[in-house]
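Input chain follows. Return structure tokens only.
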Amino acid sequence: MVRILSISDPGTLGAALDVLRRGEPVAMPTETVYGLAADATNPTAITSIYEAKGRPRFNPLIAHVSDIEMAKAHVSFSPLAERLAEAFWPGPLTLVLPLKDTGKIHPLATAGLGTAAVRMPEGFARDLIAGFGQPLAAPSANRSGRVSPTTAQHVADDLGDRIGLILDGGRCRVGVESTILAVTDTHLRLLRPGGVPVDMIEEITGLAVERSTVQPDDDEIIAPGMLTSHYAPDTALRLNATEARPGEAVIRFGGVPLKSEDQTKAVMDLSPSGDLREAAANLFDMLKRADATGASGIAVAPVPGHGLGEAINDRLKRAAAPRD
């Protein structure tokens, strides 16, 4: 039986550390989504993440750190990477950087690559990592390919029979995963849009961020969130819909109704006011709610592609992709 402990309870941090020190995973809240965390230096602990999620092992994990000094013990920072960390950490930005020979992040967490994805989360997750004293590998706390969790109940519904402890920090503030950048001395490549909009990165660095237009093969995946089909509910999605079909569930944006909504199973709105931050925070919860209606399909209205809309549309596109 899975335990759910509130992060506001005094004994929760110690209980979570005990589980992590045994090499077992813990579901922890972050500002983006809930993560399934385990010791990033321990192959047994990392294996427990892959097994609980049913995740393919060519898909690397993000190593979460409590401060930049912890990150620098494992990966090499260029001046450009340091500038990004200073601007956006703690926060929803992941940097893919070269591994140090002296680093201890296990190859199972990096899928055997010469780089590692590192991030400094906000809040309780950062305190947990600091207390543990080592990076925590922490992909989203859901079965592989499914919709990411933004509440403790989402985690319990998906992984409650596979893990022993869920830390309840309430609803995630950002609601979509971190932005992932591959960083060199002078070059930035977007691997996954996320909680930090690309235009903010370009403003801080003065550099254009390269976007890939080709879907990578399995052996070219160097960061999480790059699989074609991902973040997917059981019910098929229909994107950029302007008209609803009988029996569908509708997810609109900006308070604009779809035609024939009165014939649908359910109608919800990512943000009636058209606020992309609100829409991002609501996205995964509404996908889960629409999926639970028993609808014949989920019709999703168009969402603008600027700012956080890029991350929202990325998740929707992967959620709607053909399944293997």
